[in-house]
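[Q] Does anyone have a clean structure-token version of this?
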Amino acid sequence: MGIQDPFCIAVRLQFASLLLTRQSPKVWPVILISIVYLAPESPWWLIRRGRLDEARTIMKRLTSARNINYDLEKNLKLMVATTEDECALDSRTTYWACLSGPNLRRTLIVIGIYCIQTFNGNLIRGYSTYFLQQAGMATTNAFNMTILGFVWCWDVVTLTQFSRWDLLPLFGRRTIYFWGVCLMFVLMLLIGSLGVPQAQTHESAYSWAIGCVLISSSFLYNCSIGPLTNTLCSEIPSALLRSKALAISRWTYVLTGIVAGPLTPYMLNPTAWNWSAKTGFFWPGPCFLSAIFTFSFVPETKNRTTTEMDLLFEMNITPRAFFKQHVNLTATANTNVEEVGRTLQMEKIR
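[A] Here you go.
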């Protein structure tokens, strides 16, 4: 009995864990369906279908009570005007409309932002355990380092999400995103530099240093490039073409992953290219090009309404000058886009 009892307990625990593993996926749909049911409808979606009263109610629900300067009716009229203006400018909300006129530039910017997710060395972090193993770290330590980095990163990032809500109004999207790409360039270069002495001496200190830098790059990505990609890509396209522009850019991002993904195992595998930690030298180039692209083409969308973004792109304002360009929206909700554009041009001349 003394032997059978622990055995029975072990069998029951194993059965319970197996049952929990098989049944737990069934719990998530219930939770997600409940969240979706309680989530408010999009005011933009309601306005496009002429349901203004429902949109007004949802906007009241989404507006913070602390925001005493928020004019709900003015913003509602502005959203209606934006929808009407975009219907006039883009009578055909097709995929071809994303690739013509001012929308072409907006689509290309969104494509570039999505592709930066691949070009910043994200694939190395995807192979972090194998990467650290090839960098000289023991298999157990490499696995533990990956798990520790994953848990630590997500815990810290979850806490910093709340602080980033306050940082975004201060620094803006473009600034945080640009410096995130620049710091990623430095970290990738540092990983490659540490890989040179590690390959020569095989000292474990270099392997642990590489692991720390890799975890730091993951933390940096989750605090800047990762979340801001979705923010920028949802604010840059026009409201009517947003879903189609995001579909095109997402398809391009997947295509870059298909091309770049198979290269990473070749870089790391000792029977192939055998770059090990020196794989870090491959990614500063794409990071540098990403930084140039961000500085030259990614606009600052902080405190910009959808109508203002439409006007700035219609006027062919340089994206890096968006943050200092004044847009006069004293016009009423029925003001035509061309008339506001001429006002903007006159203010720029003055």
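[Q] Thanks! Anything notable?
[A] The CA atoms of residues 10 and 16 lie 10 Å apart.
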